[in-house]
Amino acid sequence: MSSNRALYEQVILEHNKKPRNFHEMEDADRKVEGYNPLCGDHFTVYVKLNGDVIEDVSFSGAGCAISKSSASVMTMLLKGKTKKEAEGLFLKFHTMVTSSPDSPVDEDDLGKLRVFAGVREFPVRIKCATLAWHSMLSALDGKDESVTTE
Amino acid sequence: MATAGQQTQSAVDKTAPLTALDIERIRREFPALHVERDGVTQVYLDNAATSQKPKSVIERIDRYYRSENANVHRGMHYLSEVATQAYEESRKKVQRFLGVPLSCEVIFTRGTTESINLVAQTYGRQSVGKDDEVIISAMEHHSNIVPWQMLCEEKGAKLRVIPMTDRGELILEEYEKLLSSRTKLVSVNHVSNALGTINPVRHIIEKAHEHGVPVLVDGAQGAAHLPIDVKELDCDFYACSAHKMVGPTGIGVLYGKAELLNKMPPFMGGGDMILSVTFEKTTYSSLPYKFEAGTPNIAGTIGLGAAVDYLESIGMERIAAYEHELTQYATSLLESIDGVHLVGTAREKAGVLSFTMENAHPHDIGQIFSDCGVAIRAGHHCAQPVMQRFGIPATARASLAFYNNKEDLDAMADAIKKVKEVFD
Ligand SMILES: Cc1ncc(COP(=O)(O)O)c(C=O)c1O
User: Chain A closest CA to B418's CA: distance in Å?
Assistant: First the structure.
């Protein structure tokens, strides 16, 4: 029982119920679809850029609580960040979710992202947690195509 | 003594319905039903993916490797004779179990997937030409879609699909309209692994035969849950997998009518499937060996024989009746919980319960279930077109076997309540 409480942190459940920046964006500069064939998670990430800065970001689609809340938290964190900062955050996030469950989590460094630490115990959920991020990075790279987790 | 006597008696009386006591005894024979995690015995409701194995199967395989291991059909020595005899004995057991007229009509494969591919690559390549048609249904497993798609692509043929209703029942009037002189084969599942629908295969076969079209029945979900008599069904091919019928993985069956099998070219070339080989010409073996190239899965085949023995010792009629009762109980449980939607509500239904929940994604449902110690599957169940038909990305699926009991289903209901606690 304890492990799921750790996975489904209150913050995750709350973002799942009320995702932020959860809408399509007509005037997006780029949009990239992300698809996780295993569980059918399917999101589109929209980005508006001002030079190198992410001026606006949103997402639409459907998926499990982990993928949806991760997308939601991501959009909150990335607004106003540069491409480089976004990549840096993803690297930290990715390193954390793929690390061993008993390695320490630098809570200050990770900020809001630390609520996803529970994912480390459930390797199949890493794809859920990182789906929107992969789409985002692909969008920042100027790609306008879909990504899948397979 | 008296109780023991009674128990043995109830095990052989195959007309009496299975009682709670019978199920208790049966459960003790499946070691994996007693696996614990953090002190909680795990509840296994993922039988459509694969079944658990009784001790008799596990021990039979163990015995083969310990005291009978040799290659089959080759050696003049003692062990090879023992192995060959056990291997061929399994063929006879499967023959009896599926009601197959001739033992040479039982071909051992790796499983349902290979059986279907075998037919597609031999019968299919031989008989299907440009603008011909192959008919499947809207509720097929990918393994009864993709081999036909590959064939149709190669031949310039067309794949036609029997549609289904919102309950998950095939629309037979539409099926009859699809049958024509262009139809070369019909391939449908006996029981849907995603919806639980038991399809009216007898009727489907009858209609196809009116057009002179052979029918393959994908029995992956049928053979372990319903009494099967291929002669009575009059199907032309029947495919199933041992691992879903309390047998080992890596072994399955293709039944085919001898007259069809004889006309079909071999599937794979190699040892065991030839009579003589020269560089100019090779003569193929007769049935069934023509389709069993190479050293077969001997241990698996012998394990399958033990699995079939086990199922027969209980009786498929009783298994089907008991599972029907469990399915009704599970259905009423699920229907009584707010926010749970059953996907697949056919009138003829086996123990597959696909469902979605209003506020939780199937993947999250599966996760909470796992944490409650209840194994179900969440996903598209290798039947993406079914998910598309119902406009959902995935379902959570509880699938039953005869060793499940009402307590297992109560655990399922409790797990659903837990999901609601977390997500509502
Ligand atoms: C209806 C159906 N057909 C075919 C298969 C494929 O069986 P196997 O993977 O054993 O080849 C399955 C397995 O899930 C199934 O449920």
Answer: 10
Q: Residue B399 has what pLDDT?
A: 98
Q: For chain B, which ranges sit under pLDDT 50?
A: 1-11
Q: Would you call A40 and B379 a contact, using CB atoms and an 8 Å cutoff?
A: yes
DSSP-H helix ranges across chain A: 2-7, 10-17, 65-78, 83-97, 107-110, 126-140
Write out the residue range of the structural domain in which residue B14 sits: 4-53+315-423
Q: What is the ipTM of this complex?
A: 0.85
Domain count, chain B: 2
Q: What angle in degrees, to the nearest 10, is found between the helix axes of A65-78 and A83-97?
A: 150
Taking residues A121-125, report their average pLDDT: 88
CATH classification code of A3-148: 3.90.1010.10
What's the token pair of residue B277?
């080989």
Q: Which of B393, B422, B423 sits opposite A40 (nearest CB)?
A: B393
Residue B10's pLDDT is 45
Domain co-membership, B378 together with B261: no
pLDDT at B9: 45
Where does ligand 1 bind, in terms of residues with CB under 6 Å?
B 48, 111-113, 141, 143-144, 189, 193, 218, 220-221, 241, 382
Mark whether B358 and B294 lie in a shared domain: no
Q: What pLDDT shows up at residue A146?
A: 66
